[in-house]
Amino acid sequence: MESLKPFATGTRVPRLRTAFQRCSMTETHDLQMVGERTGEEKTSKIIVTSPLQSLRRNLQIMATQFKERQPTRDDGRLKTVTLKDIAKVAGVTSMTVSRVMKGEGYVAPATRETVLRIAKELNYSANLAGRALKTGRTGAIAIISGDLTQPYCANIVCLLEAQLTASGYQMRLLHTRGELRDLINATNATAVDGVIIAGLHDLVEEFRALDRHIMQPCIYMGITKSSSGDYIYSNLSPAVEEAVELMVAAGRQRIAYVGVGVVGETLSVFDTEVRTRAYLSVMNREGRVPELIGASPTYDVSGLERVRILKEYFQEHGCPDGLLCVNDDIAIQTYRALMDLGYRIPQDVLLVGCDGLPIMEYFEPPLSTIAQPMEEICARAWQFLQARIANPDIPLQTTSFDAKLVVRRSLAS
Amino acid sequence: MESLKPFATGTRVPRLRTAFQRCSMTETHDLQMVGERTGEEKTSKIIVTSPLQSLRRNLQIMATQFKERQPTRDDGRLKTVTLKDIAKVAGVTSMTVSRVMKGEGYVAPATRETVLRIAKELNYSANLAGRALKTGRTGAIAIISGDLTQPYCANIVCLLEAQLTASGYQMRLLHTRGELRDLINATNATAVDGVIIAGLHDLVEEFRALDRHIMQPCIYMGITKSSSGDYIYSNLSPAVEEAVELMVAAGRQRIAYVGVGVVGETLSVFDTEVRTRAYLSVMNREGRVPELIGASPTYDVSGLERVRILKEYFQEHGCPDGLLCVNDDIAIQTYRALMDLGYRIPQDVLLVGCDGLPIMEYFEPPLSTIAQPMEEICARAWQFLQARIANPDIPLQTTSFDAKLVVRRSLAS
DNA sequence: TTGTACGCGTTATCAA
DNA sequence: TTGATAACGCGTACAA
What we know:
The structure is a homodimer.
Chain A: E1 27-34, E2 41-48, H1 53-65, H2 83-90, H3 94-102, H4 109-121, H5 128-135, E3 140-144, H6 151-166, E4 170-174, H7 180-189, E5 194-198, H8 204-210, E6 218-222, E7 230-235, H9 237-249, E8 255-260, H10 274-285, E9 292-296, H11 303-317, E10 322-325, H12 328-340, E11 350-352, E12 369-371, H13 374-390, E13 398-402, E14 404-406
Parallel strand pairs in A: 3-4, 3-5, 5-6, 6-7, 7-13, 8-9, 8-10, 10-11
Antiparallel strand pairs in A: 1-2, 12-14
The structure holds a DNA duplex.
């Protein structure tokens, strides 16, 4: 490791300690571009120092696609290229062009080629509004999801987006912080061919009570079943039970469940779901005393406030030696509370979350979690929805997937 | 703390250790619903044990909104209620109904009331395709964002969604893992009134080279400026310099920068941006030797692979005593690498990330970061876009916001 | 204050 | 293999 001198900003970096000194990727390209209408020529130099292949491929695209912006019409609206424009240039009718574009019906090969060339030159792209008006299909799917800032929801949206895009559909993301009624109305006002409801763990029950008002085919993804519509069910129970049994096997005495809701004479509705039931069931089977901890009275409480609540609880009641959290968010908040109070994981407390967030692995110690097979679930949801759209009268479609316990150091004593 | 007996699943929980034992929220509601066409009556009991007020409000909605699904037409398409349907019932023309719905033009109060009542009864919602076709406005905005599984992007999308929704616009989320060309094409094919480009840190330069092909008004949000279009600029330099100066003041000798890209004779394009420049500049000013560490040759490398690369680097070259990371993701990956190798933060290494992700605060020790004022940035972006849509010919709109260093324990020696 | 006529861009249908 | 026609639902322009 040689010693280096300081240098001014903007100068080349001489020699640095570096993990990647294998190759210098610098290349210079002369990029020639010709405007289609004006015939104007442009040349610009581009220096590529990037290993990302797509950049190099894009140089070609830039060269071939260079074109001026379309002129605007007198009324200020952008003049877009329509089927008729292409038809006029090609000397055919818009119907022929339509057939070529859709790839359906009989068109003479020569005609097809001409039309395609012109369409490309004019940079044609179909007006979806016109098509939707005629066909009644918008080629879009609404996704109703929970708060995207929850990585769990973001992940679902991402996976679904990949699915839809692959099938040539677009995604409309719906999400409201307000009344569910607004969400339902928004859904109906949104021109889509179908709806997927996902990641609304806390609201799904309420939502389902209103979903008769959604006019489009509708698929549920989640941890509750439905009697009225297609759904994908995530079965968390086996993994929850496995986690508790691991804690028992590790000799832990006081195994508690951290959830959302008010714990009173009756469990809060928020927690009368599958995870809580599984926890209570296995605790009963093991002859243990259940302990329910409310980290947050409702879902709309900030993370730091939950940390405060949990610290208060642990200070007042002492800390259990095994903690099962309703989701990874709360597991992370519990982690923070435990750290603040000086507890050690896993020596003093075992900790496990639920959702399978990748971030869990990065904490010290790495945090265990219960993971759902999200890729498969999302793929299946899209499959169900496509089938339902194609034929609204097919019988009820349902599947369930088992979640899997991911054991990391936070669960290994 | 009394001792408790186990109980069977599904029974009431007798008495539990609990943080919230204040109140039992159980209420029972009889819900009466009447079908509008059939006159059929339904009653169901709902038990509310939730503190979430919206649930209670929704009971009323359910009662008033109950309605059967619309019948389907012979051709299978869902029969939707149109302006004409309402007009027929109300004994007016569709134009009158249109005026009422848009709230524009003169309509007699009595007529308006009748129309509104009927529209509500028929559960009318406007066909966006028809409106878009006529007006050329879709009421939708495309957001081109990076990978939503990056919390940074998810946050932006969330904030923008709130902005758009508040203005009565819808959001179309565009994102491709493939060629940028596809993304551009998708943008044009998507019927939207405008585009916001955000969170494409790694690709924004490439993208900008192609953005002439985007037909709609377009706003950039990011850490690079543009000469050709409206943009919001996040100025990270002052905060980066502040972080380095803090490390210097703390007596740290070897202050390195962890970024993405290949470090060779020339810095990779990925890292020839504002953060790297600010780092190099302040190191130069302080008379220090810069050290650039490539955690990942390109952006599409998995987090765990980056951890591996970083560990390899630290094992080979030893560990710097101050680390500045290009973003929070990489800061978290660096954290994991340091933990695996037994380094202590902040005793052995000071660590700071960049993005202002909330999750940073939950690590032990809490990790410092550089935060952009995202709410303001997103609000401004939407403001710019609205202005540009209203009048495409207004002069270039630009603003810049300074990022702020958030000092936590990882930066306090 | 309300109505008539027309066209936005596309495609289904039928005719040639 | 291609063309003519009509219609999808809405809103602008103008007439009454």
